[in-house]
Amino acid sequence: MPSFDEVLKEAGEFGRFQKRVFFLLCQTGITFSFLFASVVFLGQAPDDYWCRIPEAAELSERCGWTLEEERNFTVLPLRLGNRSSSGECERLDVVWDASISCASPLAGYGNHSTSNLPLTACHDNWVYKQPHSSIVSEYNLVCGNAWMLDLSQAILNLGFLAGAFTLGYAADRYGRILIYLLSCLGVGICGIIVAFAPNFTVFLIFRFLQGVFGKGTWMTCYVIVTEIVGSDQRIVGIVIQIFFTLGIMILPGIAYLVPTWQGIQLAISLPNFLFLLYYWVVPESPRWLLTRKKGEKALKIMHNIAKHNGKYLSPHYSEITISNEEVSNPSFLDLVRTPRMRRNTLILMYAWFTSALIYQGLVMRLGIVGGNLYLDFFISGAVELPAALLILVTIDRIGRRLPFAISNIVAGIACVITAFLPEDIPWLKTTVATLGRLGITMAFEIVYLVNTELYPTTLRNFGVSLCSSLCDLGGIIAPFLLFRLAAIWLELPLIIFSILAVVCGLLVLLLPETKGISLPETVEDVEQLS
C-alpha cells in the first residue's frame, strides 16, 4: 500500500492543478488583509468637529443659522476666552431659551467675559462636518470615548483568536473546504451587518464574528494549499503572504475612492461571497480525507489531480496510507516537557507575540502621524513585497535563524531612530520607518516557517496553533498600546516596539538552524537539533 506522499509524487507535487488551486485560494489573502488593516480607514479621525450646546439646534433652526454661524457663536468665544479649550471636548455651560437673541446669543451673559463663562465636558452633542466619514463620527468615538476605537480593533483580534481555536478544530473534524466556504459566507454576512449596525454594541458584536470567520478563511486556505503540494514546497506560505501584501496596497485605493466608512466596509466584505464559487473548483484536502478513513474519496481526488497535471496514476492503487498520524490529545505539556522543546516553544511564543504587536502597531500608526495617509499606506504596503523576495533569496542560502534575528534587530533599531528623528526631515523619517516595516514584515513571515520546522510531525499542527495564538494576543494589545501611549508622546510606542524587537532578535539566535534538515518526526528528533 503506497503512502500519500508517494502517490502525490506520481500525480505531481506542484503541477497545473495545484497551481490553479493555489492561485484561487491566495485571493483570500487579499480580503483577509482588508479586514486586518481596515481600522486605519474605518476609524479615521474626523477633520473638523465641535461640541454643541444642547439647545443650540433649536435656536439655530429658529434663527436660520448655518452650521458655521452656529459654531462662530458657540465655539469661537470659547476659544478666544479659554485658550486651552478647542471646543471639541468641552462646551460653554449655558442655557439658551426662547429669549436668547439671534444676533448676539451670548449678550445675556454680559456681566461675564468669555474667559469667565463656565465650562462643562461634552457627552453626546458633537457636530461633524462629515458625519458618516468614519466610525469615529458615526458612533462619537472622540474625547472620553476615544478608547472605544482601540476596543473595536481589539475585539477583531479577539475574534481572530476565537476563530483559530473553534474553526481550526472544526476544520480538523468536518473538513477543510466546508469550513472555508462557511467562513467566507460568515465574513460576507457579518461585514454587511457591521456596515449597517444601528449602534456601537451591534458593530462590536458582528466585528468580533467577522474576525472569527475571517481567521477561518485565512487558516483553512493556508492548510488546503500546504496539504495538496509536496513536502518540498515549503515556500508556499511565504508566497501566500505576497497576496496579503497586495491587499494592503489595494486597501488605500478603495478608501480613497469610497467617501463613507459604510461604503468601505461593504467594498472589503462583499468579495468574500465570490469565494463560494470555489465549491465547484477546489476539492477537499485528500490528506484530511485519509485521516477520516475516506480513502476512496481521497484516491478519486488524486486521480483527478494527476489527470489535470498530465500525469498517469497507476490503476492498481486501490488504497492509500498516511503515515505519522497526529497524537490523539496533544497538550501544552507535550511542548515543554523536554529542554529543547521547552526553549523552542517559549521563544516562538514570544516571537509571534512581538511580530504581531509591532506589525499591527506600525500599520495603525500611519493613521495618527499625519501626512498623506493613502500614499503613506500604499508605500508601506509596497515595501512588504521586497520582504517576501528577500526571504525567498536568503532562507535557502544563509538559513532561517540569521535572517530571522537580523530582521527583528533591524526593525527595533529603525523604530528607535524614527522616534528621535526631527519632524523637519520627513523624507529621512519616512525612509527609516519604512526600513522598520520591512524588517518586522520579514520577521512575521519567517516565524511561521520556522515554527513548522521546529515541531515533530505528531505535534506540528497543535504547536503552530498554540504559538500563533500569541499573535492574536499581540493584536489585541496593539491598539491600546499604540493609541494610549501616543496620547502621552507620539513616538513613545516606537520605543516600546524597539525594545521588544531587539530582545526577540537576540532570543531567536538560541533556536536551532533548520536549513537543509528534514522535518523532525518525533520529539527525540527535535532534541537532537543543534
Q: Considering the protein shown, what is the CATH homologous superfamily of the largest domain? A: MFS general substrate transporter like domains
Mean pLDDT: 85
Oligomer: single chain
State which percent range the strand residues make up. Answer: under 5%
- Assign a percent range to the helix content: 55-70%
The CATH topology name of the largest domain reads Growth Hormone, Chain: A
What is the correct CATH architecture of the largest domain?
Up-down Bundle
Number of strands: 4
**How does the helix and strand content classify structurally?**
mainly alpha
What's the CATH C level of the largest domain?
Mainly Alpha
Query: Order of helices and strands, N to C?
Result: HHHEHHEEEHHHHHHHHHHHHHHHHH
Count of the domains? 2
Uncertain parts: none
Q: Tell the overall outline.
A: elongated
Major sheet size, sense and barrel closure: 2 strands, antiparallel
Task: State the end-to-end distance.
Answer: 35 Å
Q: Nearest-angstrom radius of gyration?
A: 27 Å
Strand order of the largest sheet: 1-4
Summed up, the helix count is 22
Short characterization:
By secondary structure, the protein is mainly alpha-helical. It contains 22 helices and 4 strands. Strands 1-4 form a two-stranded antiparallel ribbon.
Task: Give your account of this protein's structure.
The protein is mostly helical and 530 residues long. The protein folds into two domains: 1-53 and 128-324, MFS general substrate transporter like domains (Growth Hormone, Chain: A); 327-529, MFS general substrate transporter like domains (Growth Hormone, Chain: A, Up-down Bundle), CATH 1.20.1250. The chain is 64% helix and 2% strand. The protein is built from 22 helices and four strands. It has a two-stranded antiparallel ribbon with strand order 1-4. The protein has a two-stranded antiparallel ribbon with strand order 2-3. The longest helix is centred in the last third of the chain and has 29 residues, at 460-488. It starts with a helix and ends with a helix. The mean pLDDT is 85.
